[in-house]
Design a protein that fits this description.
mainly beta, seven-stranded mixed barrel, five-stranded antiparallel beta sheet, 3 helices, 21 strands, about 10% helix, globular
Length: about 300
């Protein structure tokens, strides 16, 4: 979920709204959790929705010597590191050519200052062995820290409410993408490259929730949606950055998807894919297979009789 402008292509107008057949818009087809910011995520069948994101999502991050959060934008090898939550008390870290390492969530210690975009936070440092492990894998001196208190960081007040919070994601608690939109994008990539590039995997876009069964790009114009028992506000579309050009399997940089997004999905000086979500009723659980119901479109609310009510 990046705030970084797409660097390619010329200015484009916003696309026309997708067709709105009814409130039902498919199902939740995948849930992804990213325990360490910028590292590889892993799929889960269920997840608890907390006010600041999915439980266990992006509570850890890597800092440089100045306390600045470092990401896969600077170090593409982040995408080859797989953290997995093995218990509420910690992680197991895996990476090619490195031994597996178990890391406990710190409960005590002297907090360190953390800078993430405009946010200034305090986090607890992990043990030195974990920082040394990451430094060796990334070939750069970094420090692993844990956000023990996820209630301290507000979202951008331009798009959120006073009580909205986010953990260590770039800007908002969750990111939603749609399978049909990726299929449409891959068609455009293949058309523009003569079949030389693509198909791109959804992993590049680092979503938390993937939905399927609706029209391509329909999510652009959602404003409130129910997924299972969870209700979310879609507060803004997601502007995409250079991190999406890193191949998640090789850590090599390319030109896609930004090249194609710049041709077809560029407006307001940015390139767009996916939408940012804020939960309205946290503490509920979402499950793969949950129905997706649009409650409000941009400029119009959907009544429960339009396309069927209930779950």
């Amino acid at each position: 979920m990046s705030r970084t402008d797409g660097p390619l292509g010329g200015q484009r107008t916003r696309p026309a709204p997708a067709l709105r057949p009814d409130a039902r818009s498919g199902t939740l087809s995948a849930i992804w959790r990213y325990p360490v910011k910028s590292c590889r995520g892993h799929p889960v069948d269920t997840a608890v929705v907390e006010p600041w994101g999915l439980a266990g999502d992006r509570r850890w991050a890597l800092l440089d010597a100045d306390g600045r959060t470092v990401t896969g934008r600077e170090y593409p090898r982040f995408v080859l590191i797989t953290p997995e939550i093995v218990s509420p008390a910690g992680l197991v870290l895996r990476a090619p050519g490195a031994p597996d390492l178990r890391v406990r969530s710190p409960e005590h210690g002297r907090p360190v200052e953390l800078t993430l975009w405009a946010s200034r936070l305090r986090a607890l440092p992990a043990d030195e062995a974990a920082s040394a492990w990451f430094s060796a894998v990334l070939d750069a001196p970094v420090r692993l820290v844990y956000l023990a208190d996820p209630t301290v960081r507000p979202v951008d007040p331009t798009y959120g409410l006073a009580g909205d919070r986010v953990s260590l994601a770039d800007g908002y608690p969750l990111l939603l993408t749609a399978r049909e939109s990726l299929d449409a994008l891959n068609d455009l990539v293949a058309e523009g490259s003569g079949g030389a590039d693509g198909p791109l995997s959804m992993i590049r876009f680092r979503p938390n929730l993937v939905v399927s069964g609706g029209p391509a790009w329909a999510e652009d114009d959602w404003r409130r949606v129910r997924i299972g028992d969870a209700v979310f506000r879609m507060v803004k579309r997601c502007a995409r950055c250079v991190f999406t050009t890193v191949d998640p399997d090789t850590a090599e940089r390319g030109k896609e998807p930004l090249r194609t997004l710049a041709r077809h999905r560029r407006w307001d000086g940015k390139t767009w894919f996916g939408v940012n979500l804020i939960p309205d009723n946290p503490s509920v659980t979402v499950r793969v297979g949950d129905p997706v119901e649009v409650l409000e479109w941009s400029g119009a609310k959907m009544s429960r009789s339009q396309g069927g009510g209930g779950r």
